[in-house]
UniProtKB/TrEMBL annotation:
This is SIMPL domain-containing protein. It comes from the Bacteria. GO terms for biological process: DNA damage response. It holds the Pfam family SIMPL. InterPro entries: 26kDa_periplasmic_antigen, SIMPL/DUF541, UCP029033.
Length: 244
C-alpha cells in the first residue's frame, strides 16, 4: 500500500511540474510573439576614385632570343608612350614574360588532330596601371590605338573602378539603415496602439555595390561592380524589438 501511495504522489508531482512547464512554454511563446521585426535600407551613391587598367602585347619568332629582343623593343615603346601621356613611372608595372611553344597542327585524312612540327615561340607580356587619376587613365584606355598604329600587337582591357573610402561609406549606410528600420518599427507599434520596447536582435546584410539605375542582380555573398565609375551601394539591417 505504501508503494501505491508513493507512486500516486510521484505521478501527482509530475503532473504539477508538467503543468508548470506548459505554462512557462505558453508564456514564453506569447512573449516571443509580442515582437516586431523590421528591415531598414541604407543607400549611398558615389564616384570611384581609383582606376586600374591593363593591356598585353606579344611577339612571335622561331628564335627565342630574337623574340625576347623584339618584345623588349616593344616594351620600351609602350613605356615611353605611357610616360609621355603623363603616367608616373611608379604606376607602370610590367609582368613577367609568358612563353608558349607553337606547333603547326592539322587533321589527317581520318579527321584526327595531329600536332605537327615546331613553328616558333610566342612571347606575351602584360602592362598594368593603378592610379587615382581616373579621367586620365580612362582617356588613355580609349586612345590606346596610338600604340597599335606604331606596329605593336597590343590588346587593351576595359578599366576597372574602385573606391578607397568604402569603409566610411559602409558606416554611413549602416547608420542610415538602422535609422530607417527603427522608424518603421515605431510606426508599426504606433499604428497597433503599442509602444516600442527594447531591441532584442540586430542582423546586418551584405553590402551590394552596383551601377546606378541598372538591373544587376544582388548575390548572397555581396555584389561588387568594378565596370562602372559611378556606383550605388546598398545594405540592409534587420532589427527585432519587443512591443509593450
Amino acid at each position: 500500500m505504501n508503494k501505491n501511495i508513493i507512486a500516486v504522489a510521484v505521478g501527482a508531482l509530475g503532473f504539477v511540474l508538467g503543468l508548470g512547464f506548459l505554462g512557462n512554454a505558453i508564456k514564453n511563446r506569447n512573449k516571443s510573439e509580442n515582437t516586431i521585426s523590421v528591415t531598414g535600407l541604407g543607400t549611398k551613391q558615389f564616384t570611384s576614385d581609383l582606376i586600374t587598367w591593363s593591356g598585353s602585347f606579344s611577339k612571335n619568332n622561331s628564335d627565342l632570343k630574337a623574340a625576347y629582343d623584339e618584345l623588349a623593343i616593344d616594351r620600351k615603346v609602350i613605356n615611353d608612350y605611357l610616360v609621355s601621356k603623363g603616367i608616373k613611372q611608379s604606376e607602370i608595372v610590367f609582368s613577367s614574360v609568358d612563353i608558349q611553344k607553337q606547333f603547326r597542327s592539322y587533321n589527317d585524312s581520318n579527321g584526327n588532330y595531329v600536332q605537327g612540327e615546331f613553328s616558333g615561340y610566342n612571347l606575351t607580356q602584360k602592362v598594368s596601371i593603378e592610379s587615382k587619376e581616373v579621367v586620365k587613365i580612362e582617356n588613355l584606355s580609349r586612345n590606346i590605338t596610338e600604340i597599335i598604329n606604331r606596329g605593336i600587337e597590343f590588346t587593351s582591357s576595359a578599366p576597372s573602378y574602385f573606391y578607397t573610402k568604402l569603409a566610411t561609406v559602409k558606416q554611413e549606410m549602416i547608420a542610415g539603415a538602422t535609422k530607417d528600420a527603427k522608424e518603421r518599427a515605431e510606426k508599426i507599434a504606433e499604428n497597433s496602439g503599442s509602444s516600442l520596447g527594447s531591441l532584442k536582435k540586430a542582423t546586418m546584410g551584405v553590402i551590394q555595390i552596383t551601377e546606378p539605375n541598372s538591373n544587376e542582380d544582388y548575390s548572397y555573398g555581396g555584389t561588387f561592380n568594378t565596370s562602372s565609375k559611378e556606383k550605388e551601394a546598398n545594405i540592409t539591417i534587420k532589427l527585432e524589438y519587443e512591443v509593450n
